[in-house]
Design brief:
The protein is an alpha/beta fold and 156 residues long. The protein has one domain (3-154): 3-Layer(aba) Sandwich (Rossmann fold). The protein has four helices and eight strands; from the N terminus they run βαβαβββαβββα. The chain has helices spanning 8-21, 37-47, 94-106, 141-154, and strands at 3-6, 28-33, 55-61, 64-72, 82-90, 111-119, 129-133, 137-140. The strands form two sheets. The chain has a six-stranded mixed sheet with strand order 4-3-2-5-6-7. The longest helix is centred in the first third of the chain and has 14 residues, at 8-21. The radius of gyration is 16 Å and the shape is globular. The termini are far apart.
Length: 156
Amino acid sequence: MKKRYYPYSELIKDLNRLIKIIDKPFDTILPIARGGLSIAHILSEYYNIRAVYDINTIGYNNRDKLDKIEIFNIPNLKNSKRVLIVDDIVDSGDTLYAILELLKREYPNIIFYSASIFYKKTAKIAPTWYVNQTEEWIDFFWSVDLKDMEDDFNDR
């Protein structure tokens, strides 16, 4: 599978594009940890939303997809009306699908939307909004850059 490095400068451009296509209001941002955390932080600043909670999942071990998705750290959303779930990429769609199933069961009166920077059209579910379609493996700057700096640090 082809790999692509995704730098911070592209994230900022793509978040500006994402903001322009989001056309529904929301009062809560729910990033899927860890990939959605940076995105949620920036969107929460832009929209001035302080109701930012995270939900944790484990679906991959490095680049290997696990057989089952673990979901934990489920937030209390009882005061929310419309929740935007954010992640860096909707790859297989299994994670987003599982989270939506769980949250809709727990909170049937909440409207859930989803947004991601990348989406693979082979996913079982598409996010409400996305910026880029891809078939590549994306190496996000937050996963790569500090590791590159580690070599510099070890050389001291």
